[in-house]
Amino acid sequence: MSATPKSAVSLGRFGVWSAELRWAGPEVGVASVRELETLGFGAAWTPGGVDDRVLDDIDGLLSATKTIALATGILNVWKHKPEDVGLWWKTQTPERQGRVMLGLGVSHAPLIGDAYARPLELMRGYVQQLRDAGLPRENLCVAALGPKMLELCAETTAGAHPYLVTPEHTELARKIMGPDALLAPEQGVILETDPAKARELGRQTLTNYLRLPNYLNNWRRLGYSEEDLQGSDRLVDALFAWGDAATIAKRVRAHIDAGADHVCIQAIRGPIGTDMPGVQATWREVASALL
Known about the structure:
globular; 47% helix; TIM Barrel; ten-stranded parallel β-sheet
């Protein structure tokens, strides 16, 4: 199985998912993505769920780098008109297009409000509009969790970019999507060997996600109880790889063994941007054990 079966983008086996690439400031973002490129990560994923400016930031990161792929995790379909995305795409050179993976997401009902309905139909229509605007399916993927969305993304895009998932979910996703779809899960990593400290960082990170039905329902499908969904040690241990670099690398590779083509790690060090030295140290140490 190739590293990117339907993708036109060379993501490599391992990448980094980092909100800091956007929210820690443009100078920090540029310096960070350059370091990720030097360390040997194949892709840098950055979120765009809360605003409509992620493509501008991707533009800047493309200009600051030479080979690393730049990906959105996610581009919020509620905040970007397909025709605007299409116009942005047409301004990119073929070389730059070859380094862009647009991960799409439908966001969450509590964040969107009454307008949120029929996410499958919404995503299917949005992908088609992007295709009509000139974007190849090989440069698109979807933040899919449930079976129906996984089927849809395998049918209409390069594949899936699941977030806050376990290797068990990766195995299920591969079975649902078949062997040829791109599967690129995110994996939170905590470079901390003290169980109490590691789990506290994990629980802090989960706080906002524990109120979003898409994640809760996915964890229920994986067998987690209502008690777990309050943020139990069992759930934290399942969702985050913590320990030393070797332990983390083993857990990240478990996704590859379960059927992933690419895994992007997210360094968890507390609120975004508050411990950039810790985030960068995590990238370096995990890279030394993983790449």
